[in-house]
Prior knowledge:
Keywords: Nonsense-mediated mRNA decay. By secondary structure, this protein is of the alpha+beta class.
Amino acid sequence: MQAAVPLPLSALDESFHPVLPSTVSDAAYRDDGLCVVGIFGKSNMQPGPLKESLINTLADKHIFSLFGGPQGGGTADSHIQAFYNQENRVLYLVLSSVCDSRQLLQACQSLSAGTGHSDSHDFWKGLDRQHCLHLLYMFSVCHVLLLVHPNQTFDVTYDRLFRALDALRQKVLPLIRAAIKDCPVSKEWKVNCRPCPPRLLFVFQMNGTLKVSANGSESGGNPDKPKKHSPRRRLQHALEDQIYRIFRKSRVLTNQSSNCLFTVPANQAFVYVIPTADEDPVGALLGQLRSNCILCDQDSTTSVSGPRRYQQMRRSARQSICSGDSGSMSMGAQLVDCSLKEFLWQHVELVLTKKGFDDSVGRNPQPSHFELPTYSKWVQVASRLHQVLISNTDEEIAELASKVQSQLKVLEGFLDADTKFSENRCQKALPLAHSAYQSNLPHNYTTTVHKNQLAQALRVYSQHARGVAFQRYALQLHEDCYKFWSNGHQLCEERSLTDQHCVHKFHLLPQPGEKPDMDRNPPILNHNSRGRSTSSCNCGRKQAPREDPFDIQAANYDFYQMLEEKCCGKLERIEFPVFQPSTPDPAPACNQAQRLPSEASGSGEAERLKEPSTAQSHTPGDTSLSLALSLGQSTDSLGPYADGDGTDTQVQQKRPSLVDRQPSTVEYLPGMMHSGCPKGLLPKFSSWSLVKLGPAKSYNCHTGLEQPGFLPGSSFLLPWDLVIRSRSEEDTGLTEPLDGGTSSWPAPNKTLVGKRGSTGGLGRSRRRDDMARAFVGFEYEDSRGRRFISSGPDKIVKVLGPGGAKDPATRVLNTDMPLYIPSPSQGRGLKPHYAQLARLFIVVPDAPLEVTLNPQVQPGPPPCPVFHPEQTDLVLPPDGLWVLRFPYSYATDRGTCYPPKENQPLNNYKVLRGILRATTANPPPQ
């Protein structure tokens, strides 16, 4: 007989002939009944594959290559190979899967080094599901199944595997019935979806660790006592008992064989142990050659084929082994161990003779159905089942195949023990993580608190959770914590202008004309941080409590407008220019974000920071300045009073045209005026206020400011002595500052005013009208309404007796004054309280002087812009007590400039020097 090559099972259909051992006509084998034997199992790292070598032994032919690569195309996927032995009418199906060493090696090579734990687990479980589908297929088309194992120990994981296959078979049974309903087989086959309940046989291979001595020393110290069974047969019996008890205990085997996935014979051996290979290979080859020669001599007399030939071979082999003794006993009084072919053929004969398997037990055993199909009928059924369960390439039954794939989740609980353990472990860790998240939580909290608690919950979860479900349940923990937070526990994320968050839960702001509504979800409320402070009005004569503001209009405009109705609404004031809309629906400017404050505060800010020596001359009573000057532009009207250095020259070169200087009536500035604002935009309201309390004589230097909230002795303004030059005197330096500072030096042979006398004394060589006294006071106010005047960056005015303040105002005018200083009345808490610069008091005397006001505030470290009013270089009219109210908060369109924290230096928050300048006014015409 000639050798043949096995084929993939998918090639066995009506249009393709299977591989035959000899050339036989198609009709000869297509009409014969055949027995289908399936072989599956595991293999270890041995020289040759165990399952393929079994086929070679059973067929007495070199069919499968023992040293070549696998026939499945070099992939790790499961596949079935078929070989039909027509002489014995047996069709062998060999399943190769990831349980084989070659397939396992290919699967490991296909995994990349960067594959994650979860992805690797999914890859292996996909191969396991594929293996299960191929096994279900073999249990549906085979009469006899051989489970091959590489050692003599039963693997108990097969119990879980068979229970999973049985559950899967019950689920897909209606789908298989629909697939084979048109096949030419019996009704019992169509109902049960298999030719008979297959009989499962076990083939174990004895490894080298189990040795059997020849002298029988294993008989308990009595070598002369004969043994009825050999050690290998006794091992087979012990394995049979063990396997049967395990399967009966787990109800894989029941009394009625027709309901089981497979059966085992009650009165026949179903376990075979392959003996260990002889250590003498030469002797083993000579023994095989001798036995083959004896068989060939006997075969030369008569030529018998089929089962009778197999019976003759079995008798000849038995006679050669027994060497003439009785047919059942050997020289050692032991029963002769049968070969693998004899072990298998006793079950195959029941199939070929159409007797079937009667494996039901119990009091009322029910006979199971049995059918011996012809090759043609079996191929039709096998092809349909292969399309439904494995290949899924037929469009006609694609729907059935997809339904089968959807039932594979039945396998997860049985086969994927790692995932089941991981899910149980992670599910137990979730309540612990939830408790860690909710521990010490307020009823409402911010995003920062949520993230911190979530990180703590993940740390607790990672201490207890294990396995492949770790990531999935970690995402569920994220979702659960977020749902808990967003379901009524989310705090409003808005922060006030003093950097305090709103205490309400997540809510919406009421629209214009809409009333707050707590019952809506989310509720409609105004922001509230529960922070209250005490502030004074524009003029400082009335104090009132105020809520912590959340927008710049409420902080710098609405509160003071409310107090104006009660206090300073009728006072004389200088209005700052604001936006005047020309359309009913103006819009905020949207190009603010295109310019960074650091970029916009380049040359223009440098120009404002530089203290000029001269100022523009205006009529004292004229309070309406030109539009260009109100926007902070340098114009040609400055004339000879403009500085002549290179900086102003560059600024004049970049001066915009008259069209660009016109304020927009369509777009307004969304925020406050500062050095980074684009030109031509005005805010909708002014954050500054300049009012006149009365004439200059309304301030008494002996009593100070008579307003509420001042600390004792700290309400006195600082004197500012100004020298008035006469036109008749031939003195130089008429345009020098008259503030008596260090920058003004006396001419030679001239006596400085006030040098010999007191601070306010007059020189003997001067007339009384050569000197004028103004008063200046930087007022600070803390959140509790405590007010005081500062005489320097780190000094508070303290007057204990009559006479007023003695310190001159030149110190505060020639230095950068801090915007925040520590309050002299600290509370009991550890957090320091800061007093903020709130007002600037200026007493302008009735003299030929021009006092120019140019406030510039930098409320933060660079690149914070410099804030200024909408009108700069403002000349104060004479004979008046003027009050400049600074903004309560500073903000741009990019955000708020928050007050300093505890660890931030206060010198970054300052009012730039040069806020006041005084020059001699032109005398009125005679």
